[in-house]
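#structure-requests
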Amino acid sequence: MPQLNGVTLHPDCRHFRGDIPCRPNKEHGYQCAGCPVYAPTQQRILIIKLGAIGDVIRTTPLLRRLRQEYPNSKITWLTLTPAILPQSGGWIDEILKLELTSVLHLQQREFDVLFNLDKDKEACALLGSIRARQKFGYQLHPEYGVAWPANDLANHKYFTGVFDELSQQNQKPYVQEIFELCGYEFQHEEYVFDTHEDKGYDWSQLPQGRPRIGLNTGCGDRWTTRLWSDEKWITLINQLQQAGYAPVLLGGEAEDERNRRLHAATGATYLGTFSLPQFINLMHQMDGIVTQVTMAMHISIALRKPTILMNNIFNPYEFDLYGRGQLVQPDKQCVCFYRGSCKLGTTSCMEQLPAEKVFEAVRTSVPLA
């Protein structure tokens, strides 16, 4: 074992930090010599999955397979949003944010397995510049500087990303595509996610005694064709209230004005906006979630909530609800695949999704006692 000035060190240990005391030393006073929790690293694994937040969340099932295949591995994850990844439970040993300091030190290390799951040029460049015995995912084409499959396993996911026609024909959920890209068969591994239940948030203002149905009323500003009108939300809220459910309005700052209007019109519970951890924990208090394809959808699935997913512009096969909830679509077939505005120049087909259809999906997915 390495020694410095006669002191035994274990730089191969999953707990060893090198710049500050490790957790076993901090909490129990253990030193490397004779340490009872010494955990030698047998494989070094790097995951590059930068964003968006929802895609980072729905990549976490891969951690379950990696811990099964490589129980003594040290897993490093490079991302743009470290806070969304599980900080406890031993799933990830090292979470790094994409910035110069992280890139510099990763380029001086060597890994056994490297997964780059993003087609961003910076992610593809890192696959080429970081040493690893095995590499999966996407690299930069050496001549043309565009994302390119690192091996044949990445071909399917690559093609569905560059040709709309192939993306529309695809019948594999996103998580299955990610697993296959990494060389694994997807076996419906669940997400790995932190509910933040240990933070002690006070939700005493939430309705009691009735099933709470979270209504996530926004969808971001990239694909606004997903939006539902206030009139539709009001109709759904009234139906839920009359049936005995307790609707709770959810959203961020972009949805605050709309949610205040809906609260004023219906009396549905609205507690305001919160930091991401508190918002996640608020969603954890729900018995079911109604949402469009947005970050809240990924959080709902990760929290294992019955999810009523309102979809129009995306391939419905992309989403795996794990047998909880339902996917509902407009009665009129959408012709605006992955478009932010309706190419017919009319009101979005989302307005052709009846509130009654969403209500029935709630009633089936979250039965009243």
